[in-house]
Every structure is written in C-alpha cells, then in structure tokens.
Design a protein that fits this description.
By secondary structure, the chain is an alpha+beta fold. It has 4 domains: 197 residues, Serine Threonine Protein Phosphatase 5, Tetratricopeptide repeat (Alpha Horseshoe), CATH 1.25.40.340; 79 residues, Alpha-Beta Plaits (2-Layer Sandwich); 111 residues, Phosphotransferase system, mannose-type IIA component (Rossmann fold), CATH 3.40.50.510; 101 residues. 46% of the residues lie in helices and 18% in strands. The chain has 20 helices and 18 strands. The strands form 5 sheets. The protein has a 6-stranded mixed β-sheet with strand order 15-14-11-18-16-17, sandwiched between helices. Strands 4-5-3-6 form a 4-stranded antiparallel β-sheet. Helix 7 packs antiparallel against helix 8. The radius of gyration is 25 Å and the shape is globular. 49% of the residues are buried. About 4% of the residues have low confidence.
Amino acid sequence: MIKSVNGATFRRMVLSGSKTLSANKDYVDSLNVFPVPDGDTGTNMSMTIASAAREVSECSTNSMASLCAAFSKGALKGARGNSGVITSQIVKGITDVLSAKEEFTAKDFANALAKGTEVAYKAVTKPKEGTILSVVRAMSEAATSMNKRNVDFSNFLVKVIEAGEEMLKKTPEMLPVLKKAGVVDAGGRGLLILFQGFNAVFSDDEDVTLTFDDAASPEADAKYSEEAHFDYNDLAEIQFAYCTEFFIVNLYKKTTEADIDRFREMLMQIGDCVLVIGDLSMVKVHVHSNQPGEVLTAALKLGELDSLKIENMLQQNRKLIGKKKVELKPYGIVSVCAGEGISGIFKDLMCDSIIEGGQTMNPSADDIAKACDKVNAKDIFVFPNNKNIILAAEQAKALSNRKLHIIPSRSVPQGLAALLAFDPDGTVASNEKAMTEAMDTVKSGAVTYAVRSTEIDNLKLNEGDIIGMDAHTIVSKGDSVSEVAKQLVEKLVDDDSSCISLYFGNNVTEEEANAIAAELSEEYPDCDVDCHFGGQPLYYYLVSVE
C-alpha cells in the first residue's frame, strides 16, 4: 500500500504524465469541436506539460518545493492555446499546496487539487461549464469527499479519475456545440490522460496503452450555457529592473496565511514575475521590481530573510551589449503568421518580427516573449491573428522584458486591418483603440476540408468535404474549392461591403486563385477584389470582406 508520495516519485509522476499525454495528443486533437485540420487541444496541452517536464527533469534535487516550482514554472512558460493556459493554472494551484510538503498523502493531494480548481476558475472571467473546468472540479470534489485515512494513493487516484470520466461524459449535455459534433470536451480528456499518466507509475507497466469511449450521449438533453467563450484577466505589463529572490524563514507567531496573501498582492502591485510559495514554516519569494527595498521591508514584517539575492537586470543587459548604447524606438510590431506570403505582407507593413505559427503550431507564451524581447522598441503591439493564441500572448506579458500590448486579432484579415490603422505618431491608448476598432470592420472566413464526418449546426459533413467557415461556424460545404469559396464570400458580403480580399494557400495555384477573383469581380461589381499569395498550410483560402 502506498500511503504517501515523495519527491522522487512525484518527479516520475510528472514525467510519466507528460509521456502519456504526448502519446495520446493526436486523439485529443481529434476531439476538437470543429472538424478542421488545425485541431490542436492535445498538441497544446502536450507541449505545455512537456515544457514543465523538462524543468522538472533538470531539477537537481528531489525536494518537493523545488520540483513544484519547476513544474509550475515550466507549465507557465510552455502554456499554449486556451487548454494549455488553463492546464498551467491547474498546475500552479496544485503545486502551491504540494510545495510545502516533503511527502504528500491522498489528503494532501485532495487539498492541492481543490486549490488547482480554484486557481483555474479564477483565471477565467466567465467560467464555462462543460469544459476542462467542469472535469477538474468533479475530480476535486470526489477527492475531497473520500475517506482518505490509510488509503492507497493509487486507488485514490483511480477514483479521482473515474469521477472525472463521469463528468467528461456529461460535457455534451452541457455544451450544445459538443453534442452536435458528437464529441466530449477535448481539454477534459487531455487532463484525464495526464492524470492517468500520473497513476501509471504505481503500476507494474508504466507504458500503459489507453483506450477511450468518448461517444456523446445521444439522449443528452440538458440546459445549455449561453456563454460561448473564455475571457481572461490581463497580466502585468510593466518593465522592472531588479530581480529579487529570497526565503522568509522563522516566521513570526503572529504571521498568518492571510498576511502572506496580502504580501503577495502587494508584490503584484509593485512588480511582476511574482512567486510567493510556501506556508507558515517557510515562504519562497521571487519578484521583479523597481523597489527592492520596499519588497524587503514588507517581507521583514512576516519573518527573517534568508538566501537573499538582488540582481540588477539593467546592468546585466548593459554587460551583454557592452558599451554600445541602444536607443529604443517608441513602438514595435510582432505578428504571428503561417505562410510565406502572409508573413511577407506583414513585413511590408513594417512588422518588426514574425513568429511562425497559427494553424498547425501555436507559439508558447515564452516563444512570444522571446520574440518581443529581440525587438528594439519600448512598447510592442502583438498580433496573435488566431483565437487560440490570444491567451498565450496575454501570458507573455509576464515573461517579457518589454511592455506588450495585445491586439486581440482572431484572424489574419483582422490583424492586417488592425495594422493598417497603426499610427506611429499616436499614443499607445489611441493606437489600441484605433486598431481594435479596425478589426471590427472586417469579416473573416476560411476554406479548408473536413478531417472527419460529423454534424455542425444541422449541417452534415463527410470526411474530405470542402468547407467554408466564417468567424463563428461552418456556413458552406461542397466538393469544389472554388464553389465553396464563392459561397463563403456570398455569406460574408452585404450592402455595405466595398472590398473582398483572397489569400490563397500553398495548395492553390495562382491561376486558380485569379480565376475565382475574376468571377467575384463580375458577381460583385461594387466591390474591389484583391488576390494575394498567402502560402498558408491546410487552408485553401483566407477571405476578408470589408
């Protein structure tokens, strides 16, 4: 019977979870609601946890605090897409609790899972049920309700997973889009696979092969939530000079957990990259701030300081660049693009840096932060150009040494429209307003193919069907790329439209694209029709109507 888990076993759990999730990421990808070839929930979650696993594997000690810090840091740095960001928040909550333990029991893990659920829900402005949030909540509730005296940890974990499985089966009842697509929530499945990987270390064969029965219940008929998206709180975006790191030990008897919470909140007001982990026995503190003295003064009210380290990051930078003075320009532009042609268009519009990604490969928060740090500008506008990248871009604010301003472009056409509205002589606020408003003037669409048979909004699709999508759903299908493209344009054009732009992918010839453009010019004589090489993979056309 395994009553507790030490640091060495916890390390194996993390590595096993990452390995198991990686082995099953394609299956999780297949559960994405829309049957398009860029389904990436499994890929995003796998890469998020892989980043965490690398940090854990490189950790030189089996100290639970060190391993938890590495696990949390790696998940944050590697977080990709909506699912990856939420997963990183679950990890953060779990490690916040376990970091204070030398070994943890089933009861400790139940408390940690409750904290992970709390942190994940708080990260979402409008939490939506029927998602990974529902699954982790069900797992947490099951863990908390169990009698955990003298319980075998592996049996405990099996029951927690079973509770998650039960909730996962209900997700199509909670979200109509899942029910119509005939799938369960992809993020919830990914989380359960991660936990199955955790539990594999307690079996005789860690290379466990997983099987799934994720068919949605055909008789599911519950009340559905009306909200259709996640909103996330903004993260800090101020540039700070001093990296301050220390332990608070021998905490005063009068110090409470509430005092530590207030200390953490204070640090968030005066700095970024804030890490306050521990309990009343010891607290690990890390913060970037311009007032290290204020940080230390506040910490001294809680206890004694140990292993104090303050580094001047400005001086570190000066050493790197030598005596050469670099004057930052006011503004920089960073854009996420997929396709040679589209990247070239953004560069022509004075984009400073292009991050490869979009359809098949979402950049992580760390990728975005590193790209921004290389731009010689004080304030940097970031164009995600994909709804699944916006959250990672927001998280990059906490990792970058620059001031990042995220323009939440959900498509390439929106990003181009926003960039055209950029005024180099304007203020940050006026540019953010103008570029955001410019996005609203554009209707975006795309033409691709279905990778599986399903039904979306009463539209039956067969594998291989050519499909046209607007910003919300699939609006057309057929056997011909050109015909579907024309049907899509018809759905997007209205009486106020004046310009139609086509960006053709790397599987469309210029002659084919020009032929469609000519037909559209005849069909819509009041609109200017432009045709550009995009070079994007998987999508025959990206369409913009203004």
